[in-house]
Amino acid sequence: MGVQYYFDNYSPVGDITVVGMCLVIFVLIGTSYVKKTKAFGVYLNIVIYLFLAALCDLFYHTIYTFITDGNYTLVYVMRLIYHALLFSNLLLYVVYIVVLERLERDKKLPVMILSTLVYVAVLVMDVVTAIQGKGFRLDASGKTISGKNYFLLGYLLFMTIILFLLFAYRKRVFRRVMLGFYGTILISFLVLYAQGRHGQSSFTVVSFLFPAVAMLYIVHSTPYDIETGSVSIKALEDMVQYNHKRNRTLIYMSLYLPDMDEEGRSFTEALQDTIRRFSAEYFKEAVLFQVSNGHVVLFARESKNPDYERKVHDILAAFQIEYEKFRFDYKIVMGKSIREISEKNAYVSFIKSIHQRMRINNIYFVKPEDVATYEEYEYILNELSDIHKKGDPLDERVLAYCQPVFNLKTGKYDTAEALMRLNLPGKGMIFPDKFIPLAEANGYIHNLTEIILRKTCEEIKNLIREEYEVNRISVNVSMLEMREEEFTGDISRIIAESGIPEGSIAIEITESQSENDFMLLKDKIGVLKNKGIKFYLDDFGTGYSNMERILELPFDIIKFDRSLVLASDASKRSEKMVGSLASMFANLEYSVLYEGIETQGDEERCVNMSASYLQGYKYSRPVPIAELRNFFSKAGKNTCIFQ
Ligand code: C2E
Ligand code: CA
Ligand code: CA
């Protein structure tokens, strides 16, 4: 590689290119979202040093042409500074790779010591030869005498260290990133070679620039999703950590559209436009992160947006106008960064824990107490995941409770509903409202159903063996798990394995609004009904019932929700309405079960409204499944009398 060159030959093209490119990089960094990592700090220095080196090179070659008195001291000094800047750059590249490869202390120390030694040695030699007048010189007429040159030696030593680092620890960096480095270094060598052939020098800085351009693209850029203007969620962690370390408060706003959140779906174009506009218009320096198809979160620094409360007010007002247009169901959560959540980098799951508790089409402002609730949520989620992972079919943490159901026809308690509880170490009993939505949202619900079903089957087997009259016990099943392919197979297998009659298990399901679900339900109910399993329609009266669909599904028992029991007490008119609904079902050969019977009055009204079964606190709260023995009667004995 010839580094022989002449001042007369100098062309500023290379240096000007570098100055321009560095400015472009600064603009890119300023306008795109860049993760503020340690490596990025080093990277920024690399670009700054390159920028200065190019300026310096330009400068001393320019002043050289103005010197007429043969005193070239300034040129010598500037040239030394130029070399120092270039070697600082090489040193920074070494640091950069060390940081990127996350080298341990014992591995990084020798490399850093060696690099620093080379760095110091080359610069000292440069100065010494300059003072001794043995190095690069210009004679009185301005002609170059190259003399001793340690630049090339230093450069080669540094390149050796860099290539060693890249090769020895290549496993530590994603392979394609590595290939990017190798490629750009190769191009740098070629450029150096080419400039040597043409007696040029200003392309040296250019060759240093190539890796910097590659790094910006490969390592530091976090591409925007052009449509919504959002950044991948991975960058959120860095933003949170960066600001947390500097004690800066962040404000955030999360928009969740459940309908858009399914696989294969995404925001419509009009919605994308709105989101992009919203995130840019209101908050200064806000970054929008896409969590999932239907979930975006906007983060900004509080200090940059001192009037953020007013802005929140404006944005919500604007949102309402948009909502009138789009009419998608939504959940909005907003708040400020909280130390515990920042430390765990857990904003996404924190926000999800709030979604779990809030109603649809609502806006929630995070309160400090939410952290405690979140920690409980996290704990339960961990346990659920552990229960799932362990796969113990009779896991002790999942408890089967049962609420006996009074059968008006037989005058006995011979059926019951199985209700799930969790008994978690250190937490005690957890009720379904705390964990069922969580289990559903995270795909653990079917696993829990299987455990409850198995425990229920086991207990039925015991009760039958002890000659108790067990008509059947119903188990609650979530619509989500019915969508799973293995559903019917799993249910029939568990019942078959326990050896109890299939008819002693019933399944409770609630209505679903979706047309797809309806078709699917119809098929699956059919399969299980053929085996003798009965089906209950749960919570009738709580949603918008589609009578046509209900009648098309082969339910055996309609469970009237407690709200209907209460309604029937409110006025004669409502009592008539509930009564006629019930008698219509009874005429169609369904059995009607009233839930939530608490008082004598409830009981009397329901008995007069075509009831076949009664369930509620008046008879019993849910009890551990083994205690069903206190309610069920043994064959031949007449223990239970209608109270
Ligand atoms: P659900 O299926 O409607 O269950 C009836 C709920 O009403 C039970 O609450 C029961 O304790 C309560 N209840 C019973 N009698 C009365 C009464 O007289 N008055 C009042 N106010 N309430 C009464 P629980 O056990 O907390 O269960 C709540 C919900 O959690 C259940 O509602 C069901 O949707 C769900 N769930 C419970 N166990 C399971 C399960 O194993 N699987 C699934 N997928 N969901 C379950
Ligand atoms: Ca139920
Ligand atoms: Ca119910």
What does this entry look like structurally?
The structure is a single chain. The radius of gyration is 37 Å and the shape is elongated. With 643 residues, the chain is α/β, with parallel strands linked by helices. Mean pLDDT is 89; it is low at 1-5. Strands 10-11-13-14-15-16-17-18 form an 8-stranded mixed β-barrel, surrounded by 5 helices. The protein folds into 3 domains: 3-220; 230-368, Alpha-Beta Plaits, CATH 3.30.70; 378-630, EAL domain (TIM Barrel, Alpha-Beta Barrel), CATH 3.20.20.450. Helix 1 packs antiparallel against helix 2 (38-66), helix 17 runs parallel beside helix 18 (515-529) and helix 20 crosses helix 22. A hairpin with a 3-residue loop joins strand 11 and strand 12 (428-430). It contains 22 helices and 19 strands. The relative contact order is 0.06. One calcium ion is lined by residues 538-539, 559, 561, 595.
- For the terminal residues, how far apart are their CA atoms? 104 Å
How many strands, which pairing sense, and closed or not: the largest β-sheet? 8 strands, mixed, barrel
Q: Count of helices?
A: 22
| CATH 4th-level superfamily of the largest domain | EAL domain
> CATH class of the largest domain, please?
Alpha Beta
Extended strand count = 19
Mean pLDDT: 89
CATH fold-type name of the largest domain: TIM Barrel
Oligomer: single chain
What CATH architecture of the largest domain would you give?
Answer: Alpha-Beta Barrel
Helix-strand makeup class: alpha/beta
Count of distinct structural domains: 3
What level of helicity do the residues show?
A: 40-55%
